[in-house]
Amino acid sequence: MKVLVIGKGGREHALAWAFHKSPNVTEVIAAPGSDGMGDVARCVPIAETDHDGIIALAQDEQTGLVVIGPEAPLVDGLADRLQEADVPVFGPTAAAAQVEGSKEFAKQMMKKYAIPTARYDVFHSLEQAKRYVSEQGAPIVIKADGLAAGKGVVVAQTEAEAFEALEQMLDTKAFGEAGARVVIEECLEGEECSLMAFVHGETVVPMVTAQDHKRAFDNDQGPNTGGMGAYSPVPHMSSDMIREAEETIVRKMAKALSAEGTPFTGFLYAGLMMTEDGPKVIEFNARFGDPEAQVILPRLETPLDEVITAVMSGEEIAARWTPDSCIGVVLASEGYPASYEKGTALDDLLFDGERSIPFFHAGTKKTPSGWVTDGGRVGLVTAMRPSLKDAMDEVYSVMGGLALDGLFYRTDIGARAVTAVRAPGPR
């Protein structure tokens, strides 16, 4: 079977790598793919926005499966177009993808179907939004309603910080139409956890847990990013907590979307806060997390295509996972998530073929003189070992041996879990 992966980032590199390992997959094709994916996929320069081109490619190649990585083409209806063309696709329709494309939609669904989440209200008026913040007090969470590449969330510790975020979204339009409406939420306290599942209608196969680190700098300081690193599993998530989250949140949302006539197919992502009252939803996403995909997929022992094919046929397959821990640290360009330069040379040691898990490319380019940066998040260095501490020691040993002029990374990914310090962090 040929598999077509849509996208070009680190998540898509990890998906292509996982499919490439499968004995059932004859070839992996990536559109548009990237220079860094060339060792596991044949890259075809068709943009994620070129729906006609992607459909033609899938039909010409007679692909047995298309997997859509990024959120934007899902919200724009690429899965709908592929379904209409009778191309097997693992990804939600535009209607189902609203669970990520509109935070207001997701919140309304959670309220209607009693899925635990933070109290909230929705505003498009700056004056009314500010009045609400003044009434509720800080800390408080401000979210752009639409897609903002993981950066449209501000955890405001003060009223002034909340006002500044509201002005950026509603007045200066920092996120364009994505911030034309804002969702304002109570600030939940506890440990975060990402719980994802393979979903097709009401068929749900949960994945292992992971924890992403969104803040740019150590000790959860600095602005929110698309993710600066992740690890899996999450040791402070007991099996009882995981089962509760699966039943009251992930399976419940899958059933809710089906009940609304918008059944979900694809990777359903629940970003959770483990509060004193149990798990509550921070956000839903309509696709695999990034960088969570890069630390979850290496732990999957069942071929990825077998899990997806089984789920799409209505089977809740018992996927096999290694008990080992996997950790990944993002290498980023200085200045990210704000402005940054491209073209910085990358250390050849990043591409050491001796490591069992490759460097997952996100923003890189191959030039005649070697690899250079081509994005804010450059890529992810990953290690997998029997314990999280061993995996953390290995990944930071690799990072410490690199020449990193013009680049930076967090030095504390997984540190709280390793030291068993559970300092609550609001988000």
From TrEMBL:
Domain of life: Bacteria
Keyword Metal-binding annotated: yes
SUPFAM superfamilies: Glutathione synthetase ATP-binding domain-like, PreATP-grasp domain, Rudiment single hybrid motif
E.C. code: 6.3.4.13
Gene Ontology biological process terms in this record: 'de novo' IMP biosynthetic process; purine nucleobase biosynthetic process
Cofactor: Mg(2+); Mn(2+)
Alphabetic keyword roster: ATP-binding, Ligase, Manganese, Metal-binding, Nucleotide-binding, Purine biosynthesis
Catalyzed reaction equations: 5-phospho-beta-D-ribosylamine + glycine + ATP = N(1)-(5-phospho-beta-D-ribosyl)glycinamide + ADP + phosphate + H(+)
Region: Disordered, residue numbers: 215-235
Enzyme category, top tier: ligase
Metabolic or biological pathway: Purine metabolism; IMP biosynthesis via de novo pathway; N(1)-(5-phospho-D-ribosyl)glycinamide from 5-phospho-alpha-D-ribose 1-diphosphate: step 2/2
GO MF annotation terms: ATP binding; metal ion binding; phosphoribosylamine-glycine ligase activity
Pfam family, one: GARS_C
Domain called ATP-grasp: residue spans: 107-313
Family membership noted in the UniProt record: Belongs to the GARS family.
Protein's name according to its UniProt entry: Phosphoribosylamine--glycine ligase
Species of origin: Alteribacter lacisalsi
Organism lineage string: Bacteria, Bacillati, Bacillota, Bacilli, Bacillales
